[in-house]
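Structure (tokenized):
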């Protein structure tokens, strides 16, 4: 009888070890990728896509030789900062004011010259970044694009 109990105990021990081994293997199968992910796969940083934020259009009076001219200007700001839209909305009055001052110092001939378009965009970028910085706003602007410019 002792021999029978001994073989039953051994059988139960083997079955318990087998079940424990199987349960551990199943658990590692489910949890394994999560546990080994930091060690096996390099973590890729998400690609930051540039966003474009259109500004309200400007209609300004430009001094001319004989009579005043008018300019319609539509601009878009390019940035990789997804939070810039709220900054641009809050800072809209100071941005518009600084751009109005900048363009009011230009003559009709300067603005009408197509070769000056890139330098005007660069100047507007510098002006906007400066105004944002002076007023304690984030100034993560990559580029200023003129999407429409009509002189009359």
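Design, position by position:
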């Amino acid at each position: 009888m002792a021999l029978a109990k001994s073989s039953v105990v051994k059988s139960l021990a083997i079955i318990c070890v087998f079940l424990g081994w199987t349960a551990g293997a199943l658990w590692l199968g489910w949890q394994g990728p999560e546990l080994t992910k930091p060690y096996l796969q390099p973590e890729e940083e998400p690609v930051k896509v540039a966003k474009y934020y259109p500004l309200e259009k400007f209609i300004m009076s430009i001094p001319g030789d004989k009579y005043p001219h008018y300019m319609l200007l539509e601009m878009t700001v390019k940035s990789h900062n997804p939070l810039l839209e709220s900054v641009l909305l809050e800072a809209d009055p100071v941005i518009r004011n600084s751009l109005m001052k900048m363009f009011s110092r230009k003559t009709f001939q300067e603005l009408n010259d197509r070769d000056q378009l890139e330098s005007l965009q660069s100047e507007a970028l510098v002006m906007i970044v400066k105004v944002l910085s002076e007023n304690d706003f984030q100034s993560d602007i990559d580029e200023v694009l003129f999407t429409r410019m009509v002189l009359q």
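Reviewer-requested clarification: The chain has a mean pLDDT of 84. The chain has two domains: 1-44, 51-151.
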